[in-house]
Please model this.
Amino acid sequence: KQEVTQIPAALSVPEGENLVLNCSFTDSAIYNLQWFRQDPGKGLTSLLLIQSSQREQTSGRLNASLDKSSGRSTLYIAASQPGDSATYLCAVRRFIYNQGGKLIFGQGTELSVKP
Amino acid sequence: GAVVSQHPSWVICKSGTSVKIECRSLDFQATTMFWYRQFPKQSLMLMATSNEGSKATYEQGVEKDKFLINHASLTLSTLTVTSAHPEDSSFYICSAKRAFFQETQYFGPGTRLLVL
Model:
């Protein structure tokens, strides 16, 4: 059974710091991995999607890496801003023939960036 | 971009009543829709997957008779929590995608359910 774990559960940093969020998964047979952002009481916004054959993806100040063999992914946020404060969720996608892709989520890292 | 809406955004009901939550894809046709449940400070747990016109596939441990899912059209799926109890209080999020094998899922804003 695939399990996704995110460390740390919560993180508080001063504005301007570079930071790394960690995600690990137990079954390396994934189709891809996706990072999401969730603001309090809201739905999810997709940030980055890394295919199983890729090593990293970048979007602006965000960089996500994937090491499938070791079951790890990291989300790197450069020059953090108060607007980055949110919960960041990592999810791996399994392919199930009769259901299409199925996302399995970690419990999230709650990030607070102080001005 | 693709937009998914949910209605209502929050609902309070008495124990024993049934509550219906709607999920709509506003600007695309959704072949597949997903329903998730999220407890405070916890992850999203997939409850069921529904394909338009067919019965929903429920995850292990999810009671299909308690959480009724209907995906009658390509733009609408409903989740009905029957005989709701306080332990059903949670944040329910739906997600939709255009095609069965497509990767991109679009998430709704969620519905907060509080059962008194």
Notes: The two ends of chain A are 41 Å apart (CA to CA). Residues 57 and 64 of chain A are 5 Å apart (CA to CA).
